[in-house]
TrEMBL record:
Residues 1-86 form the GST N-terminal domain. The lineage of its organism: Eukaryota, Fungi, Dikarya, Ascomycota, Pezizomycotina. Belongs to the GST superfamily. Transmembrane segments: none annotated. SUPFAM superfamilies: GST C-terminal domain-like (SSF47616), Thioredoxin-like (SSF52833). This is Glutathione S-transferase.
Protein backbone atom coordinates (compact mmCIF):
# COMPACT_ATOMS: atom_id res chain seq x y z
CA UNK A 1 0.00 0.00 0.00
CA UNK A 2 1.33 3.46 -0.84
CA UNK A 3 1.64 6.02 1.94
CA UNK A 4 -0.86 8.74 1.05
CA UNK A 5 -1.75 11.91 2.95
CA UNK A 6 -4.72 14.01 1.85
CA UNK A 7 -4.99 17.64 2.98
CA UNK A 8 -8.74 18.16 3.19
CA UNK A 9 -10.39 21.51 3.81
CA UNK A 10 -14.08 21.27 4.79
CA UNK A 11 -16.59 21.91 1.98
CA UNK A 12 -13.99 21.82 -0.75
CA UNK A 13 -12.89 20.12 -3.92
CA UNK A 14 -10.98 17.70 -1.67
CA UNK A 15 -14.10 15.49 -1.62
CA UNK A 16 -13.27 14.70 -5.26
CA UNK A 17 -9.98 13.14 -4.16
CA UNK A 18 -11.47 11.38 -1.14
CA UNK A 19 -14.13 9.76 -3.34
CA UNK A 20 -11.54 8.77 -5.95
CA UNK A 21 -9.32 7.20 -3.26
CA UNK A 22 -12.29 5.14 -2.07
CA UNK A 23 -13.01 4.08 -5.66
CA UNK A 24 -9.38 2.98 -5.98
CA UNK A 25 -9.55 1.10 -2.68
CA UNK A 26 -6.61 3.09 -1.29
CA UNK A 27 -6.20 3.92 2.38
CA UNK A 28 -4.91 7.36 3.31
CA UNK A 29 -4.01 9.63 6.21
CA UNK A 30 -6.41 12.52 6.55
CA UNK A 31 -5.19 16.01 7.44
CA UNK A 32 -8.51 17.77 7.96
CA UNK A 33 -9.43 21.36 8.75
CA UNK A 34 -12.71 23.16 9.18
CA UNK A 35 -12.99 26.53 7.46
CA UNK A 36 -12.42 29.72 9.42
CA UNK A 37 -14.39 32.79 8.28
CA UNK A 38 -15.17 30.88 5.10
CA UNK A 39 -11.56 30.19 4.11
CA UNK A 40 -8.64 27.92 4.99
CA UNK A 41 -7.16 28.72 8.43
CA UNK A 42 -3.58 30.14 8.15
CA UNK A 43 -2.00 27.23 10.11
CA UNK A 44 -3.63 24.67 7.79
CA UNK A 45 -2.50 26.54 4.67
CA UNK A 46 0.99 26.75 6.12
CA UNK A 47 1.03 22.97 6.69
CA UNK A 48 0.07 22.50 3.01
CA UNK A 49 2.83 24.90 1.94
CA UNK A 50 5.31 22.94 4.03
CA UNK A 51 4.07 19.75 2.36
CA UNK A 52 5.10 21.26 -0.98
CA UNK A 53 2.16 23.25 -2.41
CA UNK A 54 3.13 26.96 -2.29
CA UNK A 55 -0.51 28.03 -2.76
CA UNK A 56 -1.65 26.25 0.41
CA UNK A 57 -4.77 25.00 -1.38
CA UNK A 58 -6.85 21.88 -0.86
CA UNK A 59 -6.84 19.20 -2.10
CA UNK A 60 -3.15 18.49 -1.92
CA UNK A 61 -1.85 14.96 -1.59
CA UNK A 62 1.53 13.50 -0.73
CA UNK A 63 2.03 10.03 -2.22
CA UNK A 64 5.17 8.24 -1.05
CA UNK A 65 6.92 11.61 -0.71
CA UNK A 66 5.60 13.08 -3.99
CA UNK A 67 3.40 16.18 -3.53
CA UNK A 68 0.60 16.71 -6.05
CA UNK A 69 -1.86 19.61 -6.19
CA UNK A 70 -4.77 20.60 -8.48
CA UNK A 71 -7.69 18.20 -8.16
CA UNK A 72 -7.67 17.34 -11.88
CA UNK A 73 -3.96 16.52 -11.85
CA UNK A 74 -4.35 14.51 -8.64
CA UNK A 75 -7.14 12.55 -10.35
CA UNK A 76 -5.02 11.77 -13.42
CA UNK A 77 -1.96 10.93 -11.30
CA UNK A 78 -3.77 8.54 -8.97
CA UNK A 79 -5.53 6.83 -11.87
CA UNK A 80 -2.28 6.45 -13.83
CA UNK A 81 -0.60 4.85 -10.84
CA UNK A 82 -3.35 2.77 -9.26
CA UNK A 83 -6.27 2.27 -11.69
CA UNK A 84 -4.74 -0.90 -13.12
CA UNK A 85 -7.91 -1.94 -14.99
CA UNK A 86 -8.42 1.58 -16.44
CA UNK A 87 -11.94 1.63 -15.04
CA UNK A 88 -11.93 5.25 -13.89
CA UNK A 89 -10.12 6.73 -16.90
CA UNK A 90 -10.69 4.23 -19.72
CA UNK A 91 -8.04 3.46 -22.33
CA UNK A 92 -10.37 3.39 -25.34
CA UNK A 93 -9.81 6.86 -26.91
CA UNK A 94 -13.49 7.65 -27.58
CA UNK A 95 -14.55 6.99 -23.97
CA UNK A 96 -11.32 8.37 -22.52
CA UNK A 97 -11.82 11.73 -24.21
CA UNK A 98 -15.30 12.04 -22.68
CA UNK A 99 -13.94 11.39 -19.19
CA UNK A 100 -11.05 13.82 -19.71
CA UNK A 101 -13.48 16.43 -21.01
CA UNK A 102 -15.49 16.32 -17.75
CA UNK A 103 -12.34 16.26 -15.59
CA UNK A 104 -11.30 19.55 -17.17
CA UNK A 105 -14.80 21.05 -17.43
CA UNK A 106 -15.28 20.58 -13.67
CA UNK A 107 -12.65 23.25 -13.01
CA UNK A 108 -12.18 25.20 -16.20
CA UNK A 109 -15.84 25.65 -17.12
CA UNK A 110 -18.19 25.00 -14.19
CA UNK A 111 -16.13 26.41 -11.33
CA UNK A 112 -14.61 29.16 -13.48
CA UNK A 113 -18.04 30.56 -14.33
CA UNK A 114 -19.58 30.16 -10.87
CA UNK A 115 -16.58 31.49 -8.96
CA UNK A 116 -16.66 34.65 -11.08
CA UNK A 117 -20.05 35.31 -9.48
CA UNK A 118 -18.90 34.39 -5.96
CA UNK A 119 -15.93 36.75 -6.24
CA UNK A 120 -18.18 39.59 -7.41
CA UNK A 121 -20.26 39.02 -4.27
CA UNK A 122 -17.20 38.84 -2.00
CA UNK A 123 -15.16 41.68 -3.42
CA UNK A 124 -17.60 44.32 -4.77
CA UNK A 125 -17.49 47.56 -2.79
CA UNK A 126 -20.73 48.60 -1.07
CA UNK A 127 -21.37 51.35 -3.63
CA UNK A 128 -21.40 48.75 -6.43
CA UNK A 129 -23.91 46.67 -4.46
CA UNK A 130 -26.09 49.68 -3.56
CA UNK A 131 -26.17 51.03 -7.11
CA UNK A 132 -27.57 47.77 -8.48
CA UNK A 133 -24.47 47.27 -10.66
CA UNK A 134 -23.59 44.06 -8.82
CA UNK A 135 -26.98 42.57 -9.68
CA UNK A 136 -26.55 43.59 -13.34
CA UNK A 137 -23.09 42.01 -13.52
CA UNK A 138 -24.27 38.83 -11.81
CA UNK A 139 -27.19 38.55 -14.20
CA UNK A 140 -24.82 38.85 -17.18
CA UNK A 141 -22.35 36.32 -15.75
CA UNK A 142 -25.16 33.86 -14.93
CA UNK A 143 -25.68 33.13 -18.64
CA UNK A 144 -22.52 31.01 -18.66
CA UNK A 145 -23.61 29.01 -15.63
CA UNK A 146 -27.06 28.32 -17.07
CA UNK A 147 -25.51 27.23 -20.39
CA UNK A 148 -23.10 24.92 -18.51
CA UNK A 149 -25.94 23.22 -16.64
CA UNK A 150 -28.09 22.96 -19.78
CA UNK A 151 -25.13 21.18 -21.43
CA UNK A 152 -24.66 18.81 -18.46
CA UNK A 153 -28.40 18.08 -18.38
CA UNK A 154 -28.53 17.24 -22.09
CA UNK A 155 -25.37 15.07 -21.96
CA UNK A 156 -26.82 13.11 -19.03
CA UNK A 157 -30.10 12.65 -20.93
CA UNK A 158 -28.21 11.37 -24.00
CA UNK A 159 -25.98 9.12 -21.89
CA UNK A 160 -26.10 5.32 -21.99
CA UNK A 161 -25.90 4.74 -18.23
CA UNK A 162 -26.77 6.27 -14.91
CA UNK A 163 -23.35 7.88 -14.48
CA UNK A 164 -21.77 10.65 -16.50
CA UNK A 165 -19.90 8.32 -18.84
CA UNK A 166 -21.65 4.96 -18.90
CA UNK A 167 -23.04 2.66 -16.27
CA UNK A 168 -20.32 2.83 -13.63
CA UNK A 169 -18.45 5.55 -11.74
CA UNK A 170 -15.58 7.13 -13.65
CA UNK A 171 -13.21 9.95 -12.78
CA UNK A 172 -15.71 12.22 -14.59
CA UNK A 173 -18.21 11.70 -11.76
CA UNK A 174 -15.55 12.13 -9.06
CA UNK A 175 -14.58 15.53 -10.50
CA UNK A 176 -17.93 16.85 -11.72
CA UNK A 177 -20.27 15.94 -8.86
CA UNK A 178 -18.69 18.41 -6.43
CA UNK A 179 -18.89 21.22 -9.02
CA UNK A 180 -22.57 20.60 -9.69
CA UNK A 181 -23.55 20.03 -6.05
CA UNK A 182 -21.71 23.09 -4.78
CA UNK A 183 -22.97 25.49 -7.48
CA UNK A 184 -26.58 24.33 -7.03
CA UNK A 185 -26.30 24.52 -3.24
CA UNK A 186 -24.97 28.08 -3.38
CA UNK A 187 -27.29 29.06 -6.24
CA UNK A 188 -24.40 30.76 -8.03
CA UNK A 189 -25.79 32.01 -11.33
CA UNK A 190 -28.43 29.29 -11.51
CA UNK A 191 -31.26 31.84 -11.58
CA UNK A 192 -33.59 29.50 -9.68
CA UNK A 193 -33.61 27.06 -12.61
CA UNK A 194 -33.91 23.30 -12.06
CA UNK A 195 -32.09 20.54 -13.92
CA UNK A 196 -33.88 17.28 -12.95
CA UNK A 197 -31.48 14.86 -14.65
CA UNK A 198 -28.51 16.55 -13.01
CA UNK A 199 -30.24 16.26 -9.63
CA UNK A 200 -30.98 12.58 -10.23
CA UNK A 201 -27.35 11.92 -11.21
CA UNK A 202 -26.10 13.69 -8.04
CA UNK A 203 -28.36 11.41 -5.97
CA UNK A 204 -26.97 8.37 -7.84
CA UNK A 205 -23.41 9.48 -7.02
CA UNK A 206 -24.32 10.03 -3.36
CA UNK A 207 -25.87 6.56 -3.18
CA UNK A 208 -22.60 4.78 -4.03
CA UNK A 209 -20.84 3.02 -1.14
CA UNK A 210 -17.57 4.73 -2.05
CA UNK A 211 -19.10 8.23 -1.84
CA UNK A 212 -20.67 7.36 1.50
CA UNK A 213 -17.33 6.09 2.83
CA UNK A 214 -15.57 9.26 1.66
CA UNK A 215 -18.13 11.44 3.44
CA UNK A 216 -18.00 9.30 6.57
CA UNK A 217 -14.21 9.42 6.73
CA UNK A 218 -13.80 13.14 6.00
CA UNK A 219 -16.95 14.64 7.52
CA UNK A 220 -17.49 16.53 4.24
CA UNK A 221 -20.60 18.69 4.10
CA UNK A 222 -21.82 21.33 1.72
N1 LIG B 1 -7.79 24.48 -9.06
C1 LIG B 1 -7.57 23.98 -7.73
C2 LIG B 1 -8.31 24.85 -6.75
C3 LIG B 1 -7.90 24.60 -5.31
C4 LIG B 1 -8.65 25.54 -4.37
O1 LIG B 1 -8.86 26.72 -4.68
N2 LIG B 1 -9.06 25.01 -3.22
C5 LIG B 1 -9.82 25.80 -2.27
C6 LIG B 1 -10.92 24.94 -1.65
S1 LIG B 1 -12.11 24.35 -2.82
C7 LIG B 1 -8.96 26.23 -1.09
O2 LIG B 1 -8.04 25.54 -0.71
N3 LIG B 1 -9.33 27.37 -0.49
C8 LIG B 1 -8.80 27.78 0.78
C9 LIG B 1 -8.29 29.17 0.81
O3 LIG B 1 -7.76 29.64 -0.18
O4 LIG B 1 -8.36 29.75 1.89
C10 LIG B 1 -8.01 22.51 -7.69
O5 LIG B 1 -8.72 22.05 -8.58
O6 LIG B 1 -7.61 21.79 -6.76
Amino acid sequence: MPNITLYFLQTSRAIRTAWLLEELGLDYNLEFSERQDGVGPPAFKEAIRKAGNPLGKSPTIVVDGVTVSESGTITEYLCEKYDSSSRLIPKDPSTRVQVLQWIHAAEATFLLHSLAILYMQWFSPERVKDSGDLATMQQAASKNVVNDFDWLESELQKGKGKFLVGDHVTAADCMMSFSAQWILEKGLGTQGKKWPTVEEWIKTCEATETWKKAVQKTGHKL
